[in-house]
Amino acid sequence: MQAATAVEVSCKRRAEICMVALPSPGPVKTGSVSEGTILGFTLRPYRMSYREVKYFSFPGELLMRMLQMLVLPLIISSLVTGMAALDSKASGKMGMRAVVYYMTTTIIAVVIGIIIVIIIHPGKGTKENMHREGKIVQVTAADAFLDLIRNMFPPNLVEACFKQFKTNYEKRSFKVPIQPNETLVGAVINNVSEAMETLTRITEELVPVPGSVNGVNALGLVVFSMCFGFVIGNMKEQGQALREFFDSLNEAIMRLVAVIMWYAPLGILFLIAGKIVEMEDMGVIGGQLAMYTVTVIVGLLIHAVIVLPLLYFLVTRKNPWVFIGGLLQALITALGTSSSSATLPITFKCLEENNGVDKRVTRFVLPVGATINMDGTALYEALAAIFIAQVNNFELNFGQIITISITATAASIGAAGIPQAGLVTMVIVLTSVGLPTDDITLIIAVDWFLDRLRTTTNVLGDSLGAGIVEHLSRHELKNRDVEMGICS
């Protein structure tokens, strides 16, 4: 028995030595972005075919697939363990602080977008000379809102891992009775009037029908995981086995992230270079569209470089740039992938290892933030809506601007952390004030670039939010540590 125990201890010791001996993962360097940009513009003159571009971008596609592979188990395991590690009082306070932060920064972002676009006024002139690209799917604001609620409560958790509910529209014919004209009825015999009362006409109408789209239903999984983790946390000893399982799963996922980090610089290089090579003729980006691009960049910079760091400093009284320096890997990954969900594994690693943020906070705040906290998207949608009004010479009154603010804030919550989701939710914002949704095609040409910038802003907002929530929740976390110490 003693010999067996000695062997077990020896094996454990060797495993620990091996883990220590492994080199730490290489950082995602800023050189990946600059090198990818240079390589992309160098290869543009060669006019590569669509097939050649896809082959060239393959290393970048692999990075996206590897990161997306980890998103689903990471969201579930991190939220379950995060909620289970907190008591109901602490989780409630932390959740309230996170929601207040999300709403505050999103509203500020929308206001910045509106002020900047009104001051710069990039939509001067006419839209006739502007280049259009792509096609827009129509959707009503009511159906989009109901879809958001439906996706919060998926009927099948397995299906929620790869599908989301989405209302589709189809044409259906309806018989509508024709009401007879009273004057005409009085002038004809009774049998004719009776015949006229039975006349009907057939009309066609678009009706909503249930449908689905491919993609992880992150919102539904977040809601379920939070509830599941909360219940496990209140089960005390009975839930210990489940807590340990999800904690081990989370740790295993983070070790896989460490491996992927070695490949990330190469993947980001080819993601950016491939997108630049794939770009349409740069000549279409001129005049109003160029001014629109500059306006969005200015708005995002004000929010990301001034507002968010200032908010972090005012709450924590710490240097925000030291904190942001620890996020460099996550921000560059966001710039390369243009997906806050795909960046989530790297964001976890940066916050926990580089900035030392409590795991109970990151596991609770980050998955929720990556799903509903979209500062960059909200700013972009409000700004783009007013830009489209400007190119249509449509004068917006104060009430309509308030409507745009509210719908942009709400629509950004429904924009899942996937590439170019903002274009879909933009339809809701335009519909709310009667602007032509087809004019979204005017800004698609530059959306691939702006999408990367607003995703980076989203990730920065989520990360600084985790730091702020940790600071505000430090007393609850400390009390929880004391309680756990007493119990042990």
UniProtKB/TrEMBL annotation:
It catalyses: D-aspartate(out) + K(+)(in) + 3 Na(+)(out) + H(+)(out) = D-aspartate(in) + K(+)(out) + 3 Na(+)(in) + H(+)(in); K(+)(in) + L-glutamate(out) + 3 Na(+)(out) + H(+)(out) = K(+)(out) + L-glutamate(in) + 3 Na(+)(in) + H(+)(in); K(+)(in) + L-aspartate(out) + 3 Na(+)(out) + H(+)(out) = K(+)(out) + L-aspartate(in) + 3 Na(+)(in) + H(+)(in). It is a multi-pass membrane protein. Homotrimer. One of its GO terms (molecular function) is neutral L-amino acid transmembrane transporter activity. The keyword Transport applies. The keyword NADP does not apply. This is Amino acid transporter. It comes from the Eukaryota. Keywords: Amino-acid transport, Cell membrane, Glycoprotein, Membrane, Metal-binding, Potassium, Sodium, Symport, Transmembrane, Transmembrane helix, Transport. Belongs to the dicarboxylate/amino acid:cation symporter (DAACS) (TC 2.A.23) family. Gene3D superfamilies: Sodium:dicarboxylate symporter. One of its GO terms (biological process) is D-aspartate import across plasma membrane. One of its GO terms (cellular component) is plasma membrane. It is found in: Cell membrane; Membrane. The chain crosses the membrane at residues 66-86, 98-120, 216-235, 256-277, 289-314, 321-340.
